[in-house]
Amino acid sequence: MQASENSHDDFLFIDDSDEDEILASDGNETWQVLIVDDDPEIHSVTQLALSDLVVLGRRLEYLHAYSGKDACQLIKEHSDIVLVLLDVVMETDDAGLNVVKYIREELQRKDIRIVLRTGQPGYAPEESVIKEYDINDYKTKTELTRRKLVTTVFAAIRSFQQIATVNENRQGLEKIVSGSTELSSQHSLSTFSQGVLSQLQTLISDDISAVFCARGQGIIDNIDDLSFYVLAQTGYDDNLINQKLDKLQSEVVSKQVKACFLQQKHHYQEDSLNLYVAKGDHRAVIHVSLSTPMTETQTQLLNVFLTGVAVGYENVHLFQKLTNAAYKDWLTNLPNRLEFVRLLDDFAQNTATNNVAALIDINHFSDINDALGQDIGNKLLTAVGQRLQSINRDCQFSRVGADVFGIIGSAEHVTPENLMAIFHQPFIAGEQHLPINACFGLCTKEHAQSSGVQVLNQINIALNIAKKNRLEHFAYYHSDIEDQMQWRLNMISQLRNDFSNDCLELWYQPQLSLATGKVIGAEALLRWRTADGQFVSPAVFIPLAEYSGLIIEIGDWVIKQACLQLQSLEKSYADISISVNVSIPQFRQDNFVENIINTITEHRINPSKLELEITENILMDEPQIIIDALTRLKSQGISIALDDFGTGFSSLSYLQKLPLDRLKVDRAFVTDIEKEGQSVIAETIISLGKKMQLKVIAEGIEELGQQERLIELGCDEVQGFYYAKPMPAEDFIEFLQQQS
Ligand code: C2E
Ligand code: MG
Ligand code: MG
């Protein structure tokens, strides 16, 4: 080290001290200042000159290095050094400049302030170095009077402080910006509010405890009151979530939250914050309890952060609304079809093995809608949606279509019996009490395929089968069902083909009077002989024809055939009548009645010779439509018989409204009629027929004994294998000829 550098050492004691800068310190905090000089005396004079100096409320504390190398080591070890008073020329000419490079480049410390001092102006660094390395001041030692030194140190520390604040702000803002992006990706209220609390932790401190509160109504599912509920918490207990704030059992917190909400502004206190979050109609309060008071910077940053939170809070609500629109049914507030598919996905993929998914279809909902108006229809649907939930709260419910509901739950709860029980009592819609029933399609987890869409298809298939089922209104999906479906589709297309190729036949089974023993008529029965010469039973293909709607064309053909037959019987057997079976879908044709009347007129036959056989079940659906049609047909003179009587469920009140001529006692009540006590039903039907002044015909007589018992009971007419099996038209004519 050059001796010359120290030749002006006494400069530090030159006059102009200014006591203004020497202020009282207000605490124990200090500024760490590193003095770097190879001359020990410079260290002591500097320290002396700066003794008692208080900068921004803090005293200075000194570290000493006597070479560039030592300086680097100390700076590395003491991250709290704020200022380095640095000699330029030490062990080498540029030792000081190397320290500068080390600070700025190696350590990347842009905040540490550096004041270069040199005894020799000749060793002044380039101006570019001063700029590049952000050097606060460059002074020759001669320039550094005490006053100047104090001013320089003062300015440098102040500048350090500013940089620190800017840095803190920048970091805080970075947190806010990254926090906001993170928050804006949260779409659910719970993750958003939880996210806000963890951002607050980042911004303030990990030690805070906080609750995010809002009024429950409309925010938490199934909560309808205006008390404060906890949406998220940190530092308390997770059990608080979605519970009333009171559950926290802190009167202070409850009071503060309420006051903040009412006064609509933030409340900052030393130990707590109550932050008012509001945008549009969406309001919340965040209560934060602090372990240490916040700094001013934190408070400022918090304010910036909160504006973003309010916007985010409103967005989450809007998003929730959109989600609701996309996944919730607007009328019942239940999940909609889309959401039901997601629930079914879960049903199909989760590990629970004992669950069942089902669809519930209300029968004749559209009639109710048409007859009583949409308002009543909507009220009915709402009522059904509500009552469904009585099955069990743990089940998942959905409105899948206009009058179709979905349910997923345990096999114990989702049973046909429980589903049917829902419909035992009428529903109240406005002033109406509406008795309704429904069909149910079910699928157990065992049979469920692997995706929601597939399961929906499965329960839909089961539902369709249930709808077609006359006796039971529910069906479980099972693996054969699809094979059956395929088989049914094949049969239907074969039937359609054979029908259009004129391969169906109408056979006749004679009906006799028990009083005279004479043939009084015949029941026309369809026969389908397939290409291989085999007969397919009507009990098999009639339901398929009904299912496919083909029964309408086939039914028209049957009536026409029967009329042709009556026409040909006209001359020789004018008393013979023919009964034709008709199915429900035929009645749904608009011009059903007109068609029959036209056919009769066309063939110029006596309408009373044509009889239509309807089954009791026909009344289960739309009874009024059927009753009206039959009444019109009856008024034309056409005769009406009630087939398979006693096997259905029709109520007597409807029966009385039917314009009937004959009751047919089903074979089931005839088979065992001779046995002790087995004739009760036949007896009842016969006496009921008498009371209603109807003829009674028994079918399925196979033995003489059955005939005798029927005579005793006062039955009028019979039909059965005992007399004749159904036969082709020509055979029937022959049969008649033999009889006469
Ligand atoms: P159904 O109207 O109750 O017809 C009576 C059924 O009993 C006929 O069966 C007949 O062959 C059978 N039968 C008559 N006497 C006896 C007997 O003594 N013993 C036994 N074991 N059976 C007897 P089929 O012809 O198989 O018809 C079955 C069902 O198919 C009919 O029941 C009817 O509901 C339906 N069907 C037949 N033809 C038509 C049609 O043209 N249109 C409609 N819609 N349904 C039809
Ligand atoms: Mg019949
Ligand atoms: Mg019958």
Can you walk me through this structure?
- The protein is built from 23 helices and 27 strands.
- By secondary structure, the chain is α/β, with parallel strands linked by helices.
- It folds into 4 domains: 157 residues, 3-Layer(aba) Sandwich (Rossmann fold); 155 residues, GAF domain (Beta-Lactamase, 2-Layer Sandwich); 141 residues, Alpha-Beta Plaits, CATH 3.30.70; 249 residues, Alpha-Beta Barrel (TIM Barrel), CATH 3.20.20.
- The protein has an 8-stranded mixed beta barrel with strand order 19-20-22-23-24-25-26-27, surrounded by 5 helices. A 6-stranded mixed β-sheet has the order 2-3-1-4-5-6, sandwiched between helices. The chain has a 5-stranded antiparallel β-sheet with strand order 8-7-11-10-9, sandwiched between helices.
- The N terminus is likely disordered.
- Bound molecules: ligand C2E and magnesium ion (2 copies).
- Ligand C2E binds next to strand 20, helix 15 and strand 24.
- The site of one magnesium ion (MG) has 4 residues, from loops.
